[in-house]
Amino acid sequence: MLYTPIHIKENFIRLDAALKLSGRVSTGGHAKVVIQNGEVTVNGEICTMRGKKLFSGDRFEFENSGFEIE
Length: 70
Known about the structure:
alpha+beta, 70 residues, 5-stranded mixed sheet
């Protein structure tokens, strides 16, 4: 899978914010629902914690799209 880079200036980004930044969800509420429903994987494992901190090199996938934090 090709991973689209998501550039951040901070040390980390929360999973829900990263989903919004990726453009795959439009609101924080939508991000919360898809994360809690187990539809998002982080580094290959299902993640249901919307506040999960993602650091440079972490990858997440949603709806057959992959993203990598840089």
